[in-house]
Specification:
alpha+beta; 3-stranded antiparallel beta sheet
């Protein structure tokens, strides 16, 4: 998860940091994952920070999963053709 927007609220030592987060490969923000009626997360709820960026590294995890899903879909389609009676 990558911080997308930061908004300080309050002043001085009582200032509270709010974050709107967005996954680096997602089109939309992560508000749907937040507690009900919340549009930001608090600084205390952020568990880590980004120290670097390696483009396309996530594909190492995504590609095998997508290939397996496509293979499963093809096998299921062929099995349906074999076992579904034709009229």
């Amino acid at each position: 998860m990558v911080t997308w927007e930061y908004e300080p609220c309050g002043e001085g030592e009582k200032a509270v940091q709010h974050f709107l987060t967005k996954g680096d490969n997602n089109e939309n923000d992560d508000v749907a994952l937040y507690p009900v009626d919340r549009h930001t997360v608090l600084r205390d709820e952020v568990l880590g920070i980004v120290r670097g960026y390696i483009p396309y590294l996530g594909w190492a995890a995504i590609l095998p999963r997508e290939l397996l899903r496509n293979i499963n879909d093809l096998v299921a389609e062929h099995l349906r053709e074999l076992y579904v009676p034709r009229h």
